[in-house]
Amino acid sequence: MSFADLHSFVAAIEQRGWLKRVTVLVDPVLEITEIAERVTKAGGPALLFENVVGSDLPLLINTYGSAERMCLALGADSFDDVAARVKTLIKPEMPTTLMQKIRRLPELAQLGSLPPKIVKRGVCQEVVHTDDADLFMLPALKCWPLDGDTSRNVATEADCGAGPGPLTTAGTEPGRYITLGAVFTKDPETGERNIGMYRVQLFEPKLAAMHWHMHHDGARHFRKYRARGERMPVAIALGGPAVLPYAATCPLPAGIDEALFAGFLQGGSMELVPGVTQAALEVPATAEIVIEGYIDPGEELILEGPFGDHTGFYSLADFYPRLHVTAITHRQQPIYPATIVGKPPQEDYWLGKATERIFLPLLQVVVPDVIDYDLPLFGCFHNCVFVKIRKEYPYQARRVMAAIWGAGQMAFTKIIVVVDEHVNVHNQDEVLFQLCSNIDPRRDIMFIDGPLDILDHASPVCGAGSKMGIDATRKIAGEGAIRAWPDELEMSTEIKERVTRRWGEYGV
Ligand SMILES: Cc1cc2nc3c(=O)[nH]c(=O)nc-3n(C[C@H](O)[C@H](O)[C@H](O)COP(=O)(O)O)c2cc1C
Ligand SMILES: [Mn+2]
To answer: Which CATH class is domain 115-337?
Structure first.
């Protein structure tokens, strides 16, 4: 089952008892964060705030904050089911008999219906604001106390910004952000579409800042428009197909359209309509709200941030492009979807978990040695990954590390721990046990320099620094000085079964 818009997804989760409506008046400034923080960390439901200070729109949060809701949005029973479908994409089994060919026809027909479909009209444009567009009609959250407060947590010159621009005072309450928007852009050379989830800070009714990291596709497009000296059309979609926010976070290779992947995930094409003021872009027909605008790459940048981020720290304020709003369109009675990030676990943990599982078959194409991997909660996505391999030759773990450091967004991983096949990488204690016991630190830790997540505040410069690979596998001949390597303790199956069988007799 798939959900073509947020309204139908809300109805579905409400029907399953996974949504709670909050009717009392609440403040989008900090108060919603603290409520969502408590509910998410307790594994609680999605929340629909029907009465938000300063806005007529209801605010939905924690929509994807559980395995069940994330799977429902993906139209699957489990992440592994989706991974299995992804695997058939990359490793199609060739039908050999006529019967097999016939059986595969529906599958092939389905593949043909995945690219986005451009339609003439969409509910997302039921109401159109152009001259009267006002970003502050949205109940955009101020998530953390120091968000937008540029008196501290500001980047120094060593950071990512492309040089100073003038400071701008931010709206009514500084530090309000759109946090669950899918940002649509196109490559000016190839016309290829990209959808990325990037936060957007509100400054004035028609002025915002676009926080795309330099390594992400939106920023890549931006650099192309800048080189051409052309204005860049941008649209931000809120709501739309239930898979869209997830698709926008997917680490797809540059040039692969996230709308196509969304179509694959939901088993049917996503409908798009041309923007009303940015006709070069198509936006999701079923979105709740769409913000259309442009970035003029010739214009001075704006100091964006700080922002309480998924690292558990404020990401430093730095200079980012100004987004000028040309229209805000919405359906009748739109729902405003939002999320907060912060110390894990938050709602985004589940978006990340889905990716970890769904992208395993794709990672295995690049690094076939990887049997399984886990991005532990404490690692906040990019800080740490546990990898399991079947070791067959010397230094295989190091080869795996090097390959991961070259693989898409996995390249930003700061610490890689490689363990042997028998270790459960989803059990932190098991991995740490191997790590602590199996390494000679000087021999088994490898450092390299390279690009890092720009949110890593400990790296010596923004977006680049050192990474560490820890080979916690059993060492074999050819891997430097090792003595006889002992076997790990394990009771024989026979004795285990005997003790299980006789357990009652012992009376312990
Ligand atoms: C809740 C959430 C917020 C995010 N915020 C940002 C952001 O502000 N800027 C950014 O560049 N990436 C952000 N990301 C990560 C990107 O969405 C993600 O890396 C995505 O794959 C980028 O797409 P792209 O490769 O098409 O650019 C966020 C992810 C999530 C789940
Ligand atoms: Mn992309």
So the answer is: mainly beta
